[in-house]
């Protein structure tokens, strides 16, 4: 170890809910550690969400260690400021060794064992390193976006706040996952003309047979299903989340209903050339697939209700309220009055600062329950790290407790 190198048993990279959950368990187990956060503990909720953002899972699923939701609306959906307050309350509940505004710029193997971590200009040595920086570092925007007329305003979903920040005129939203579908509704409620490029994201009903679908799935132990037992195995990590909303108490997001009420629906965006958008001929297929997924979830709930002998109200099958006409006409952006494009096509992780052999040929980290083949090197807070809830408030505590047991060598019970 060099003269100016500091040593500590455990370093956690990332001070969001995952890294803080890890810190909570290590604090409880009295393991010395430090948490490095490039910005602030709440920055992703505060800086990368639109004004009307809210959770799509009910509040009762917010179960950070030692800090479950204790509000008056367990079946409601926290809005942006409530989420920020919830996370800040978690931080205040145990005062973690958190260093905000301290970016980790390099992690390498240490010649004496363990890892050398450069953070905020300082060099540290740690036997254990937990990467809890998330999977959403680099916003995805296609290369051809740079050739679009600069008069058309472009913004990624992480930078969208409200309709007022966009110039007057119609908006093209690209991507129909959770963010895209919710932002379409946000713009539509502000009486903006919206066009949506519909991708392959599935949908789910908010309520079914008298209850929130999440409540049914929880009783069915869906959220305890591990990735090892998922029909898609590791492929579950690549699946887009179902679109639904918790806004105003929660309701379905039905893209067909949007279309019936004036939103322009198009297939997957293939390219924009000379300010003309070209689409894949898959709009009907994508809408049908989304509905089919929703119907399959309902069938699984029906089967559970029948199997358990539960008394629940019946519900008529969904009937599509709108159908595409089969055309696939390119869209002239200027002729359609489009002055803004909102890119809602996701993120890519950025692990270029990690020089440790834990990645596969596609440069994706390889782990089992967050444990890699590199001794003492872990990942936490990623989608389907172990279960559906791994990247969310509902399941990250269980994952953090497991990794704490790997670090301490003893059983660490889940809080």
From TrEMBL:
Write the Enzyme Commission number(s) for this entry: 1.-.-.-
Recite the lineage of the species. Answer: Bacteria, Pseudomonadati, Pseudomonadota, Alphaproteobacteria, Acetobacterales
Q: Return the protein name.
A: Oxidoreductase CzcO
Q: What class of enzyme is it?
A: oxidoreductase
Q: Which domain of life is it from?
A: Bacteria
Which UniProt keywords are listed?
Oxidoreductase
Return the Pfam families for the record. Answer: Pyr_redox_3
Gene Ontology MF, one = monooxygenase activity
| Origin species | Komagataeibacter europaeus
NCBIfam families recorded for this chain?
A: MSMEG_0569_nitr
């Amino acid at each position: 170890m060099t003269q100016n190198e500091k040593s500590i048993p455990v370093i956690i990279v990332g001070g969001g809910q995952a890294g803080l959950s890890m810190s909570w368990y290590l604090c409880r187990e009295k393991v010395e550690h430090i948490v490095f956060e490039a910005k602030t503990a709440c920055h992703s909720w505060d800086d990368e969400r639109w004004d009307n953002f809210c959770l799509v899972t009910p509040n009762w699923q917010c179960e950070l260690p030692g800090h479950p939701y204790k509000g008056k609306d367990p079946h409601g959906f926290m809005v942006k400021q409530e989420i920020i307050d919830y996370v800040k309350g978690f931080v205040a509940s145990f005062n973690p060794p958190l260093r905000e505004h301290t970016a980790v710029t390099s992690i390498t193997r240490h010649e004496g064992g363990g890892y050398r971590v450069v953070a905020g200009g300082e060099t540290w040595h740690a036997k254990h390193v937990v990467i809890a920086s998330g999977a959403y570092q680099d916003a995805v925007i296609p290369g051809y976006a740079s050739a679009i007329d600069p008069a058309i305003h472009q913004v990624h979903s992480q930078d969208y706040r409200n309709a007022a920040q966009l110039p007057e005129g119609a908006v093209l939203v690209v991507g129909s996952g959770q963010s895209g579908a919710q932002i379409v509704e946000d713009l539509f409620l502000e009486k903006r003309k919206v066009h949506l490029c519909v991708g392959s994201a599935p949908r789910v009903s908010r309520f079914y047979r008298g209850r929130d679908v999440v409540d049914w799935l929880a009783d069915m132990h869906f959220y305890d299903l591990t990735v090892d037992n998922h029909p898609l195995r590791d492929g579950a990590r690549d699946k887009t989340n179902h679109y639904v909303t918790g806004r105003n108490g929660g309701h379905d997001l039905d893209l067909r209903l949007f279309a019936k009420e004036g939103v322009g629906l198009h297939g997957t965006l293939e390219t924009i050339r000379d300010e003309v958008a070209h689409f894949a001929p898959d709009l009907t297929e994508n809408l049908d697939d989304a509905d089919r997924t929703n119907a399959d979830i309902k069938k699984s709930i029906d089967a559970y209700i029948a199997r358990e002998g539960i008394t629940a109200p019946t519900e008529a099958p969904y009937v599509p309220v709108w159908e595409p006409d089969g055309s696939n006409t390119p869209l002239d952006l200027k002729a359609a009055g489009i002055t803004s494009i909102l890119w809602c096509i996701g993120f890519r992780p950025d692990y270029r600062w990690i020089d440790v052999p834990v990645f596969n040929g596609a440069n994706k980290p390889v782990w089992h329950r967050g444990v890699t083949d590199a001794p003492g090197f872990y990942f936490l807070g990623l989608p389907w790290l172990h279960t559906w809830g791994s990247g969310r408030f509902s399941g990250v505590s269980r994952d953090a407790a497991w990794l704490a047991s790997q670090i301490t060598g003893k059983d660490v019970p889940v809080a």
